[in-house]
Design goal:
globular; 7-stranded mixed β-sheet
Length: 122
């Protein structure tokens, strides 16, 4: 089992940067794929980025490619999302998730964090 606690949400101006972190507890973190999803009110939770268990493979939604970077530290049991060049369409609640495969499908992930909010001002 994996428990996830996120930190790092907040408010930033358009063009600015934020870093989200997700700390994990549980023995299976090192073998888990990790992902970030985001959700705005009235819409489905959507895929942002994922990383496989070793950190050797990463995947991104087209909307964030080149701006966001997902990384992990298996010793510290932390997965991070560096968000640069934030745009007005990026505000959402961001969720960290753990699963068996680094896909963009929500159903592949069994464990979810609480979701820090990211706000972007113009």
């Amino acid at each position: 089992q994996v428990q996830l606690v996120e930190s790092g949400g907040g408010t930033v101006q358009a063009g600015g940067s934020l870093r989200l972190s997700c700390g994990a507890s549980g023995r299976t973190f090192r073998s888990s794929a990790m992902a970030w999803f985001r959700q705005v009110p009235g819409k489905e939770r959507s895929f942002v980025a994922s990383i496989n268990w070793s950190g050797g493979s990463t995947y991104y939604a087209d909307s964030v490619k080149g701006r966001f970077t997902v990384s992990r530290d298996n010793v510290k049991k932390v997965v991070s999302l560096q968000m640069n060049s934030l745009k007005p369409e990026d505000p959402a609640v961001y969720y960290c998730a753990a699963g068996s495969t680094a896909t963009g499908a929500k159903y592949e992930y069994n464990y979810w964090g609480q979701g820090p909010r990211v706000t972007v001002t113009s």
